[in-house]
Design a protein that fits this description.
Leucine-rich Repeat Variant; mainly alpha; 209 residues
Length: 209
């Protein structure tokens, strides 16, 4: 599916309103793609979180679709807004975009959204993604984010979807070896789950406050 600028559907304003707005030192999409939101004592945390949560609850489905139809910055931002507000009506769309892996960086947002939805259906989407892409030991896409989200859901749901993936010499170990030869760093499954936990906790904590 070709990328479509939001202007073509009358939503040209969504980029400035949701994607490049600055509630900190950097545009929102850069903060979402980095680790600043997880940094203890980050001075912009309150402002950033409150505006993100407010936008997530007020953005329309049409505006979200306009963002999802465009490039990685827009898709990443839309995925976070969908996840924060738990717009489960976007589950299938998120799953399709994750599996398609058309652009870089946005996949982490899709995995976050699925982790926030928190159901067995989301675990199945993540499992299908990992089954498809972990055998490709020449590709480093969003496999770490997907595994972290799946482990997060397993812990929440009391399921074991990730067990066969993370077993010794299983899909995960073989993928890590393959991309390691390409120079990509590796993280343990526990570290990846913790990363997802922290992102979800960041939103949960500010939502409660």
């Amino acid at each position: 599916m070709p990328f479509q600028h939001p202007e073509t559907t009358g939503h040209g304003y969504v980029i400035e309103r949701y994607v490049t707005r600055k509630d900190s030192d950097h545009p929102r999409y850069l903060e979402l793609n980095g680790a600043h939101v997880l940094r203890p004592g980050w001075p912009h945390a309150k402002r950033f979180a409150r505006h993100l949560i407010d936008d997530a609850t007020t953005i329309t489905d049409a505006e979200l679709e306009a963002l999802l139809a465009y490039e990685w910055r827009s898709r990443l931002t839309a995925a976070w807004l969908i996840g924060v507000d738990r717009r489960e009506s976007f589950r299938e769309r998120i799953g399709d975009l994750l599996l398609a892996s058309e652009v870089c960086y946005s996949g982490g947002g899709f995995c976050f959204a699925l982790a926030r939805f928190g159901t067995h259906a989301d675990a199945e989407i993540l499992t299908a993604y990992l089954d498809h892409y972990l055998p490709r030991t020449d590709l480093h896409y969003d496999q770490p984010d997907a595994l972290g989200a799946l482990l997060h859901l397993d812990a929440r749901l009391g399921t074991h979807h990730a067990d066969r993936i993370t077993e010794p010499d299983g899909l995960w170990d073989e993928w890590v070896k393959g991309v390691g030869r390409l120079g990509h760093p590796s993280h343990t499954p526990a570290e990846l789950r913790r990363w997802t936990d922290l992102h979800c906790d960041f939103i949960n904590d500010w939502s409660r406050s």
